[in-house]
Amino acid sequence: MTRLAVFIATFAYSGYFPVAPGTIGSAAGLLVYLLSRWTGSVAVEVTLIVALFAVGVWAGTIAERYFGGIDPGPIVIDEVVGMLITLALVPVGLSGALAGFFLFRVFDVIKPYPAARLERLHGGLGVMADDAMAAVYANLALRAAMWLLPGWIA
User: Dihedral of the CA atoms 67, 69, 73, 76 (nearest 10)?
Assistant: First the structure.
């Protein structure tokens, strides 16, 4: 069970990338987003977010024990879900998706209130919740950017 949880939490071991694993996890999330958007189904997009968040809580709890720390670097399932939330229900093309990627990375690093507090939640819920909150901020910022710069971000 631990092996499966670590596999999921590291998103198929992509979290073991030696440099900037969170950015690699976000890039993986961008690929998952593109696949989910390709289906053209809002239900698939939303179901994927909810399912990966729930599985991420479970896997993150076990993986924290395995790695021996709170939200260790190799756990990147939270970045994958963060990218999905950032781009959720936002009609963007490639430039908009890349803008969302950049915005999510910024909000994930700075963790504005209450994201930093959510990180203190127990186990995998803390792992997932802070990135989900950062992603909500990134989603709102992306929507604002699209409104302010409609020709540039689409």
Answer: 80
